[in-house]
Amino acid sequence: MDKQRDCIITLRASKAEKDRITDRAQSVGMSRSTYLRKMGTDGFVCAPLTEEERTWLATLGALRNDIKKFVNALHSLSHEQRLAIFKTTAFMLEWFAKADRALDYIDGFFSRIKAQRR
């Protein structure tokens, strides 16, 4: 796409429409011009992530790495060894508790993002 912006587009809007466009642009940290250009070319605008959302994503990344390590460790065991581990009640209760906390965290993250984007 051509980055040189040498064309001007003029549009008519009511005061209320202009204010609404300005408010929406400011809510996503954009100028009115950038907001309208992005909406016109892409059809949507995504607000930048907040510091809290970046922290949540970093935590999700760490959870993913922990799950990956767990899976890799299980793959290194024989079928009989895996069965022995998963037949141990204490291990399964601890594993389910950790998995439940991770899933709650992930669900909470996406619920908050969804609520904030409305």
Write up what this structure looks like.
This protein is mostly helical and 118 residues long. The protein folds into two domains: 36 residues, no CATH class; 66 residues. It is built from five helices and no strands. The chain is elongated.
How many domains is the backbone divided into?
2
Query: What percent of residues adopt helix (DSSP H or I)?
Result: over 70%
Q: Report how far apart the termini are.
A: 30 Å
Radius of gyration, in Å, reads 24 Å
Q: Indicate the overall shape.
A: elongated
The fraction of residues in strands falls at under 5%
| Overall pLDDT metric | 85
Number of helices: 5
Query: Tell me about the biggest sheet?
Result: none
The stretches of 5 or more residues where confidence is low (pLDDT under 50) are none
Number of strands: 0
- H/E series: HHHHH
Q: Based on the structure, what is the oligomeric state of the protein chains?
A: single chain
Q: Give the class from helix and strand content and strand pairing.
A: mainly alpha
Blueprint of the fold:
Blueprint: H1 15-27, H2 32-42, H3 51-75, H4 79-86, H5 89-116
Helix pairs in contact: 1-2, 3-5
